[in-house]
Amino acid sequence: MIAGLEAGLAAHGLSLLGGFVPEPGDEVPGDPATVLLVGNVGSAVHPHLQAAPERDGPHPLDRWTRRVVAEVAAPLGAACLFPFDGPPFHPFQRWAIRADGRFSASPLGLLIHERYGLWAALRAALLLDRPVALPRFEVVGSPCRSCTGRPCLTTCPVGAFRPNGYQVAACRAHLGTLSGQDCMMGGCLARRACPVGRAHAYDRPHAAFHMRAFRVGGS
Predict the structure, then answer these.
(1) What's the pTM?
(2) Are 88 and 105 a contacting pair, CB within 8 Å?
(3) Angle of helix 168-175 versus helix 204-216 axis, rounded to 10
């Protein structure tokens, strides 16, 4: 079943990002036997979105994700949850760490993956009413612990990543300036400064898509 699911997701540029058997503290609604996490790694997903009817109109990625994941999940009889449904919002970051121990928190607030760096994004959770053989991943600990200099925290032109939290307004304002066009067209400089998983970094069209959505407050 897992192999078939992975093939179905890959046909849309999506990836299976692990799974777990839920416990009461995980705050998974209902009473599923298994939770599987779906997302994208790097820019494999972007050409599929650009070729889809959802590319035109508001929230193209969210609408495309809802349709495609539902189609892939239907043969499994799986219920679908999405990180953009809310409030209240589901704890997708916590679920990802449960699903794959190679995920951990980063200083930027994004999850970082030991292999994919900051370039694995969570798109959906599939809830199954039966147990499945889950992929096993060794827990390796955060790569941030051994990172010298932490360039992610010193690269942002407006110092948006501060001890008291991420300064959204300062970041958005910078994107509208001439000096902010490197971030706007190529993606967040702080994110790009991370040395982990650089081979999976978003290409410029994909990065620009997300930055445009962030600037106007959509996705």
Answers:
(1) 0.93
(2) no
(3) 120
- Rounded CA separation 135/128 (Å): 15
Q: Pseudo-torsion of CA 5, 82, 108, 15, nearest 10°?
A: 10
Beta strands 79-81 and 120-128 are: antiparallel
In the block, residue with structure tokens 């928190």: 105
pLDDT in tens, 10-32: 999 999 999 999 999 999 999 99
Nearest Cα to Cα of residue 194 among 109, 127, 123: 109
Under 8 Å between Cβ of 92 and 105: no
Quick check: 134 and 20 in contact, CB under 8 A? yes
117: DSSP letter: B
The DSSP bridge pattern shows strands 161-162 and 79-81 to be unpaired
Buried b (16+ CB within 10 A) or exposed e, 79-89: ebbbbbeeeee
Q: CB count, 10 Å around CB of 54? A: 18
Structure tokens at 66: 């809802």
Residue among 161, 149, 212, 151 at smallest CA distance from 183: 212
* Per-residue pLDDT tens digits for 57-87: 899 999 999 999 999 999 999 999 999 998 9
Q: Kindly report the backbone phi and psi dihedral angles of residue 77, in degrees, each rounded to the nearest multiple of 5, phi listed first.
A: 65, 30
Closest listed residue to residue 1, CA positions, set 96, 134, 100 = 134
Q: Are 206 and 43 in contact (CB under 8 A)?
A: yes
Q: Give the Cα-Cα-Cα angle 26, 10, 15 (nearest 5 degrees).
A: 25
Q: Count Cβ atoms below 10 Å from residue 101 Cβ, excluding itself.
A: 15
